[in-house]
Batch of 2 targets.
Target 1
Amino acid sequence: MRLLLAHVRMVEATLDDLSPAGVHAARNALLELTMGVLTRKTDGAEPLFAPALAQAAQDLANMHLADPELSPVMLARELNVSVRTLQRAFAATSESVTAYIRRQRLEQARHALITPHGRPSISELAAHLQFADSSHFIRTFKEFYGQTPAQYARSHGRTATP
């Protein structure tokens, strides 16, 4: 019960500073804490807060994939948690925050490569998705998908521009 009340006080004190994703995470944590109190099954450390926090961070990251500021630090700041708390929440997903961001950026690139009209060049895609340069993007894409972006685009009926 003390944990529930502490959470309510914390949310009340920071509500105006929370982003929509932070409000969503706080709401989910509040529901989980309330259920824990009602069923008398609480984990004194973090009762099911981690899944709600990880989901809120994933949603926020997905909205900011092209943002150069997107990082675990930025997500933690927006969700009003420490970076370590965010990392612990992602530990349950078997993927780090950074790996999630990279995977989502690569997935967005993969979709862009097979878009029939207005597809950006490899260089534009790399810059848009915040890769250091096109070489780094091509290497990372190949590690993840087993083909370079150009090979992937060709194998899906598109011609990639360098």
Target 2
Amino acid sequence: MSKLNSSDFKRYSKFVDGLARKLTKFYYSKLNRTFKVSNKLRGKGFDPVTTSDKAFEKFIKKEIGKRFPDHQVIGEEFGKKKTKSDFTWVIDPIDGTRSYVIGNPTWSNLISLNYKGNPVIGLANYPVLKKHYFNASDKVAYVVDQRKKRKIKVNKKILFKNIKMSAAFHGMLSLNKQKKIPKILKLMQFPCADALSYSHLAEGKVDVVIQCGNKIWDIHPLIPIIKAAGGVVSTWKNADAVKGGNIVASVNNNIHNKILKMLRPITK
């Protein structure tokens, strides 16, 4: 696994911390108004994109370009900028576009910095909630809530019988498959709100998050935050979450392995 040295961590975490504040300011000054919605799937389903998604991505790319012009960039809406750099920024300008469309405040700006393909710095910014999460090393993560910054940790000591689980299948798991995992269904007792659920796990508010069909920009920014807060994250088949797909995040290895075992009937 490729890692940054301490000075690089400091440099890049300071940048994403500042970027979060700029993004929230940008939202309230430019985007907190009427927007247009279109459907990427055009009659084959519903995958909304708004004019705000595109405006956010352009803004984020501009900010990255000013500081790190040689870095590669992958954005959900505008694709990839290729260079020879080992550093790649992965951008989801609005994670939770459906929430954004209906006025639910849980949507976020997700950004990761990858070094040699490995997510090392993550940012999850929630403009309406006025809070953001990021990691400052591979062992330290923070939430900045109403401008107050504090370290966060997962709830490692929770007993399995007491876990709080946030889970959603996003219409990607058939009813027949759901019937094969009754223990998981029974544990699905807490709301799942896109990236906010992963952020809540890192903050110690929930103990397991299960989601379907995460793209790389959905999960890369959360991986370093979850791990720095002491959590575990993988696919349902226990592969590296960097590949995206069906994802499970947990507060410790013991709970993670139990959840993976419960999911096994639909991962064979």
